[in-house]
Write a structure and sequence with these properties.
- This protein is α+β, with helices and mostly antiparallel strands and 393 residues long.
- The protein folds into 3 domains: 2-87, Phosphorylase Kinase, domain 1; 95-316, Orthogonal Bundle (Transferase(Phosphotransferase), domain 1), CATH 1.10.510.10; 320-385.
- 46% of the residues lie in helices and 11% in strands.
- It is built from 14 helices and 8 strands.
- It has helices at residues 49-63, 95-98, 107-126, 154-160, 170-173, 178-181, 187-203, 212-221, 236-245, 257-268, 297-309, 312-316, 320-351, 358-385; strands at 8-9, 12-20, 24-31, 37-43, 73-79, 82-87, 139-141, 147-149.
- The strands form 2 sheets. A 6-stranded antiparallel β-sheet has the order 1-2-3-4-6-5.
Amino acid sequence: MSQRIGQQLGTYRLLRVLGEGGFATVYLGEHVHLGTLAALKLLHLSFSPEDGEAFRKEAQLIARLEHPHIVRVLAYDVQAGTPFLVMSFAPGGTLRTVHPRGKVLPLSRVVDYVAQVAEALQYAHDRHVIHRDIKPENLLVGAHQEVLLSDFGIAVLAQRSRSVSTQDVVGTAAYMAPEQFRGKPCFASDQYALAVVVYEWLVGERPFAGSFVELASQHLLTPPPALREKNSGVSPAVECVVLTALAKEPAQRFGSVRDFARALAQASQTMVSPRFSPGQLHTGSPHHRTIVPTVTVASVLSVAQQTEAASPDDHAALPVATRSRRRFRRTAMVKRICLGLLLVAILLWFLTAANPILHPLFALAILLALILWIAAYADHRRATEDPPTTSKR
């Protein structure tokens, strides 16, 4: 896309490329009359007239968001078939650039970042706007080192476009909440994505990895690995807060993203270890972790403190075998249901071979049923390979 450098788009002359993604390229632009700088995001998407009008209304809504930690959308237009957004320029780049993948951040810095992002998200949520695409690449650094949240509504635009393939959103899928994979994003989806970012900052890697299908299966069905297994410097209180925000069901997360930020800040003050040791691997015995439905900061911290204070004998008394048997039966039932759906979809696909409308629909149903069956099979296999443990006395 460097061939556009020097061209004029609207009232801006494109100076250089700031970044490029799967469906957009961001340029630094200079206003031809005022000499001011702005970031222009050129979208590699094609719209139908209906989609273009729908996103224009979405852009109008986003442009009304005025907050110290939100990148301002200054204009939206289409020129020569290319839709583009004009946004305020953040000279510090993205937090992905500042903190490359694999880097572990000090807890104090994570708490500070989360506080700023959470205030921006809470402001948007109060105005009934869901971001849908929280990730380090969309967290920018302003002129005064403040964190700025960008790309509101871009995920909606990508979903509207028919030119975006599943592969294009693999990077985003690593941060997507389970309900987003079902097509039902909510305010708590942004909290979940922010918790994935926090997890990555604290241990140097995201909780889940793999292809789009593998990520969907893990986010939907697999509990995230304990943070303390990857970094022993993470306290039980901090781990409990992050895992609560990563609950599979939105109702089991914090009542708001602001509550999540407050709980994380409080948990950072209740650390047992006086030192935070980024990158140190945990070599001790595994820790039991509990994710509990909660909407308050105090209840989560109370659970974390009880977990931290519990002795090995207390953990041994838990009904592990009972929970394991229930999980085995549940996963077996889910696997059978998914297999049945797959077989029904295949049968209907054969029966509708002469119908040009229903035949491709049932082909899509086969694909979805196959994904569900693979995910259910993987979960059931994990249940069978993880036998209950008992302690010897």
